[in-house]
Amino acid sequence: MHDNREIMDIISEKSVAMDIDVDIISDKPEPAGGNKKSSTSYSYSHTSKRNNSRCKRVQIQKKDKACRYWLAGNCKYGSEDCKYLHSDVIEGSNVTFMTKLVGHDNKPIRGITFLSHSDSAKLCSVGEDNKLIAWDCHTGQGTNIPLGSHSKVGCLLSEGSWLFVGLCNAVKVFNTVNLTELLLDGPKGQVHALAIANQTIFAGTHDGTILAWKFNSATNTFDPAASLTGHMSPVISLVSEKDRLYSASMDHTIRVWDLRTFQCIQTLRDHTSVVMSLLCWDQFLLSCSLDGTVKVWAVASTGALEVIYTHIEEHGVLALSKMNDEQAKPILLCSYNDNTVS
């Protein structure tokens, strides 16, 4: 059985040796102001030719990604000598950096969600500092929302006026309209994943169980509905589509559940490491794993899901998300355990 610290170790980045690649170039003027100074650094070295000393500039070619040690605050090379950038990197002419939201005490963020019912741009986040913060996206100002004694945070989800926080041994529920709070007991250990389908909230727990609560409109509460068992390790991702619920686990499998019966109807075993994230997109199911693959699943003629495409990455893939660009073309976003998103 894995403990919570092992889960964090699994998704943490791997250490990489830091070596400096340098090129000796001929004497040329410094880059003009229009060039990207942030991507090139200069130092100087001396050579000798026919006993005449000569100073040449050494150009450090910087890779287009942020230094992981700088992000952690302990890069020993400094901004001039490190071959990685000491700044956040955003590529693409249609991508604009808006603001940095600061308030989680330099701890990892465990969940981010928009409040869809809000008239203004509101964003909520939870982190390993056990804080739940509501942000104003226009001003960047944050407001702390108390979580109480069950404050070991695992995940975050919003649906309409409801905000759900996965905690240790519980799910905390906030109604952001009437400002009421509920506490759903039953989980054993940390709640790592949440999903909503058919007015039912599902929680993936550390012991491999998926618990379900059905919304009761008469009492404006959530009543226990089912307990889905089958995974042998923590459930760390849940998504739903129509009458199906999909769960991903540290046991390297994906399970398909019938939401009408709460029974498992298929187990997918094509990944060779922890399945980190799931995404439903049109008629497809997408999955990613620490095995460095993104797999696309589709329903075969037999009615079962089969892999129709596998994309291989150099690093483990942590999460998947989707969006449309200005031309309504679909874009798949992937995050990796080398601190990059593509």
User: Quick check: average pLDDT?
Assistant: 80
Fraction in helix:
under 10%
Instruction: Describe the largest sheet.
Output: 7 strands, antiparallel
Q: By helix and strand content, what is the structural category?
A: mainly beta
Shape: globular
Give helix and strand order, one letter per element, not per position. Answer: HEEEEHHEEEEEEEEEEEEEEEEEEEEEE
Spatially, the strands of the biggest sheet line up as 10-11-12-13-14-15-16
Radius of gyration: 24 Å
Please tally the β strands and state the result: 26
Residue share in β-strands: over 45%
Query: Which spans of ≥5 residues are poorly predicted at pLDDT below 50?
Result: 11-60
Distance between the termini: 32 Å
Helix segment tally: 3
Oligomerization state of this entry?
Answer: single chain
Give a written overview of the molecule.
This protein is globular. It contains 3 helices and 26 strands. Mean pLDDT is 80; it is low at 11-60. It has 342 residues and is mainly beta. A hairpin with a 2-residue loop joins strand 13 and strand 14 (200-205). The chain starts with a helix and ends in a 6-residue tail after the last strand. 5% of the residues lie in helices and 51% in strands.
Question: Which structural traits does this protein have?
Answer:
342 residues; mainly beta; 7-stranded antiparallel beta sheet; 4-stranded antiparallel beta sheet; 3 helices
Summarize the structure.
This protein is mainly beta.
Describe how the helices and strands are arranged.
Elements: H1 4-11, E1 22-24, E2 40-49, E3 52-61, E4 63-66, H2 68-71, H3 78-81, E5 84-85, E6 109-114, E7 122-127, E8 132-136, E9 142-145, E10 155-159, E11 162-166, E12 168-175, E13 181-197, E14 200-205, E15 210-216, E16 221-228, E17 235-241, E18 244-249, E19 254-258, E20 263-268, E21 275-281, E22 284-289, E23 293-299, E24 305-312, E25 317-324, E26 330-336
Parallel strand pairs: 4-5
Antiparallel strand pairs: 1-3, 2-3, 6-7, 7-8, 8-9, 10-11, 11-12, 12-13, 13-14, 14-15, 15-16, 17-18, 18-19, 19-20, 21-22, 22-23, 23-24, 25-26
